[in-house]
Design brief:
The protein is about 40% helix and about 10% strand. The protein is an alpha/beta fold and about 375 residues long. It has two domains: about 140 residues, Aspartate Aminotransferase, domain 1, CATH 3.90.1150.10; about 230 residues, Type I PLP-dependent aspartate aminotransferase-like (Major domain) (Aspartate Aminotransferase, domain 2), CATH 3.40.640. The strands form four sheets. A four-stranded mixed β-sheet has the order 1-9-8-5, with helices on both faces. Helix 5 links the parallel strand 2 and strand 3.
């Protein structure tokens, strides 16, 4: 009998059905509210979510948009970033972090990541700043904030705006300040797998700058104010009212879900420590002071690929975030970066594996995941 059959039910990487079961009545009531109103585009439901999310992030304004990618793109657009400009960012993130920069004709300028948190190494940012630099775009990866104290000091020194990519970090904190509320703008994603997920795509920009907030509101409706009169070239970046209603129904549960993710991470840490595996076989996440919201729980091992194949075989969900750093992506070949230039990012891409961390995960399931990993690695 295989390990999978012995273990019983599989342990998925994410179980959205379990979450929905807990909030079904609230979510269905929210959807019904929109269906009855027949107001599907922007409107009071979106405005209410914007106010609630802005307050949650510690910002004055929220601007609901169509996705986390469009949140980043719109933020760059309102700053006027375009050809010949440079934006300093990380080579280890989801593609949208650098893709939005390149899409506007600007150049993403990469610096390496910290080897333990996988966030951008703030100590390297200043060396990448040139007269063409127009912004710094740090990413709060896997649910933990980058070193925003150091990043903001550099930004002030060089008079540069900071756009926070907080797509994976809603509610995360650095020195008691929330992700998204520390830079001039913060960008969130409501992709279904995020800690606060919609029933499709959705995103938001938060800011405390009144002028930028107004520009973002105009930009997301094709740059028109009033309607059919265009002061700028914008896009169709609107957040659907039905997604806003769903997110509002879920928002009240977010802190509870975060606490459960944190408890699951603590259990993983405790159980992996008890297994006493050699560091080269398994390293668990490094958690700095602050609030880590564990969008992902990533382990690091030199046996990553074989471990992933084994876990797939025995019914334990896992995923690679991310298999190739951005500076080695084919579409960025023209930037002239080479393999070996950002060794920490490249090593992370070879060795990191995400395992289940969702709030509804039981301790018995965590025991199964740990057992499958430890037993496999003990044979290496």
């Amino acid at each position: 009998m295989s390990d999978k059959n012995k273990a019983g039910a599989d342990v998925p990487l994410l179980d959205l059905k379990a979450q929905f079961a807990a909030v079904e009545k609230e979510v269905r009531a929210a959807i019904d509210r929109i269906v009855e109103s027949q107001q599907f585009i922007l409107g009071p439901e979106v405005k209410a979510l914007e106010d609630e999310l802005a307050a949650y992030a510690g910002a004055a304004h929220g601007i609901g948009v169509s996705s986390g990618t469009d949140a980043l793109l719109a933020s760059l657009m309102v700053l006027g970033i375009g050809p010949e400009d440079e934006v300093v960012t990380t080579p280890y993130s989801f593609f949208a972090s650098a893709g939005g920069i390149a899409r506007l004709g600007a150049r993403p300028v990469f610096v390496d990541i910290e080897p333990n948190t996988y966030n951008i190494d703030a100590n390297l940012i200043e060396t990448a700043v040139t007269p063409r630099t127009k912004a710094i775009l740090p990413v709060h990866l896997f649910g933990q904030c980058a070193d925003m104290t150091a990043i903001l000091e550099i930004a002030v020194k060089h008079r540069l705006p900071v756009i926070e990519d907080a797509a994976q970090a809603i509610g995360a904190e650095h020195q008691y300040r929330r992700a998204g509320g520390m830079g001039i703008m913060g960008c969130f994603s409501f992709f279904p797998s995020k800690n606060l997920g919609a029933f499709g795509d959705g995103g938001m920009v938060v800011t405390s700058d009144d002028g930028l907030a107004e520009k973002l509101q105009i930009l997301r409706v094709q740059g028109a104010k009033p309607k059919y009169h265009h002061s700028m070239i914008g896009g169709n970046f609107r957040l659907d009212a039905i997604q806003a209603a769903i997110l509002r129904a879920k928002l009240g549960h977010l802190d509870e879900w975060t606490a459960k993710r944190q408890e699951n991470a603590r259990l993983y840490d405790e159980k992996f420590a008890a297994a006493d595996l050699a560091p080269e076989l398994l390293t668990t996440p490094t958690q700095r002071p602050g609030r880590h919201i564990f969008n992902q729980y990533v382990v690091r091992t030199r046996e990553r690929n074989t471990l992933m194949a084994h876990l797939n075989d025995v019914g334990v969900g896992c995923a690679i975030y991310y298999p190739a750093p951005l500076h080695l992506q084919a579409c960025f070949a023209n930037l002239g970066y080479r393999e070996g230039q950002f060794p920490n990012a490249e090593t992370a891409a070879r060795e990191i594996l995400a395992i289940p961390i969702y709030p509804e995960l039981t301790e018995a399931q965590i025991d199964t995941v740990v057992d499958r990993i430890v037993r496999f690695l003990n044979t290496r």
